[in-house]
From TrEMBL:
This is beta-N-acetylhexosaminidase. Its EC number is 3.2.1.52. The active site is at residue 339. It catalyses: Hydrolysis of terminal non-reducing N-acetyl-D-hexosamine residues in N-acetyl-beta-D-hexosaminides. The lineage of its organism: Eukaryota, Fungi, Dikarya, Basidiomycota, Agaricomycotina. Residues 24-148 form the Beta-hexosaminidase bacterial type N-terminal domain. It comes from Lentinus tigrinus ALCF2SS1-6.
Amino acid sequence: MLESIGLVAFLVLQVQCSVLEPQIPSVASFTPSSGTFELSPFVRIVVDSKYATHGSPSLLDYADTFRSDLEDTLSYTALAPVKLSSVVNNSIFGIPTIYLTLNTSLEYKLYNGQFTDEGYDLQISRDVYLIKGSTPLGVWWGTRTLLQQGAIQLAGGAKTVSFPAGEGSDSPGWEVRGFMLDAGRHWFDTSFLGDLCIYASYFKLNEMHLHASDNLWNPAFLYGDGNEGWKSLYAAFRFQPPAGSALDGLVPRKNESWTQQDFLDMQRTCADHGVTIIPEVDTPGHSLVINQWKSELMENGAPDHLNLSYPDTIPTIKSIWDEFLPWFSAPEVSIGADEYDSALANDYISFVNEMSSYIGAKSNKSIRIWGTNEPSTTLSVSKDITSQHWDFPGDDVPVQLLSRGYRVINSEQAFLYLDGKTSDGGQFPQELNQDLLWSGAPGGKGWAPNIFSPTDPTNNTSIDAPNLRGAVFALWNDWGNNATTALEVYYQLARSMSVFGEKAWAGSDVRPTGLTRDQFDAVYPMLNAAAPGQNLNRVVKPKLGNIVYEYPGTYRSLNTGIPSVGPPYTLSFSVKPDSRSPFTGTLFSGADSKLHVANLTFEATGQLYALGYVLPQDRYTSVEIHATREYTYALIDGDEANPRYWHTLMDIWGEYMALGNMSFAAPSAQMGGDGFAGIIKDVRLRLGA
């Protein structure tokens, strides 16, 4: 611990004295000069009036968001952005000035030599901190650099935030730097997804790939002779068509789907933070939800596959895209297209190419597919389509695809696949494997988007491979909606996003300024805690010591005004249900969870998790709930020898069955409600389990 603190102090001293590093991702270059730029209690943001309205979001839009983030992260008061034609080495009325501007003639290049609009320059003097890019998006990434540098200083104990004078330049090594979330087998509301975009943006990730349709995989239900269990197997399509649409039957769970307005609002939130949503509707495999709606489209013997030779199949898929393409602002969409019947290779390739042409003509968008090696000797997938590599050997080998002129995104599962909690021992890890990412590539080097194999260097490319677009890491939910809560998914993603941000922006062993693992480990906790614009950690400031609130006495209902508290925490109380209605109502509720009286059941992300304990009637029972990010348990009447854990039963494939621990945020907003009849007394919520 002392060594870690010493390293943090050393890094902060470096930042204050001479350099703008380390941070996540690292900055490509910075040359210090004499002097410092110091933030005072008030700081002014100035937008170059010549470029204020350029782009969508515009430079001024990004400035408004930056202002809010500056106050959120650094607790400095930022005055409303103003538009001026220039600021030349002078503060305005003695107030430190952050100046945002463009130079459209600036040229930044990816490692493959292609131009990128995401680069930015820094010019820091005593009075002005200038961020300049060729586009507003580049300037946006420059504001993330400033915020991270300030957060590192404050976390290291600095009383004020200051930056060394000097000049720097930074740009990403790869175009695509994203994460994929399996929303087809796990429901997520749009507010949570928007918060994920905001968090990802802090580490300069620029895509969220939404896998928006899929089904659980249970061979006995899907492929058993004469078995019609496929009709009830969990499958979902998340985009909700408008009332009266011919697609209405495609969405079996209206309460687990996104309305157009909700999606557009979320998409805008992401765009306002530099993150593009890449939507995916997965066909012709993984299509059970479509076949549950229209069984005539089903491939014989494979309920999760479409029959591409049936006359109405492709028109139906086109009608789905017709409905939802106008929702999507991204220049690309994904049609999935993996794990289809290899015996139908020509049908598959014809379908993929037809959908590429159709979507391109309809919306001027290009498509991506999951890499799939379909064995055809007469047809080939169009080179207008990007292949998202994920597996050897079932996928086309990336180096061969690149050599044939295909564009490739790296999602290789050996490095980049995660899964929710599973009951089979864990096919994929809960977060990205740090050992692999820092030193698991051939030769002991770190991973980067040009690395596809941890063991075979011939399957890897150079960083300047012309058609290597970048990388997307993926979090799957193969084991269903009940295996994890939304916040547990965030816990899996948080550190993974940040280390991936470093590797996908800067690479490994490329830049002299790139982070070491020790540097990353030192600064990550500080930056995770300071990430602005959201509160996915569900942090609250305790009123006294570690006490969030304390309510002695008795209550039937009470609003506390605190929406949710993240683990670790301890919630203690006594409760006496009324015998007239002992098993109804809610003991506690919050933004992320509820605790129901019946069987002491937690509710989170639309799922119920019963403790299986029945509260006695007409007498007080003391309950003490302890939660960490790995588990939640209760002590009943102080019985420390017999903790009772909340579990989930995972039994998706029909072959494995296991209990998994659940972690819940504290339902801290409301005591009593929903018909609760009884008394709650002596309530106390403190931080720490």
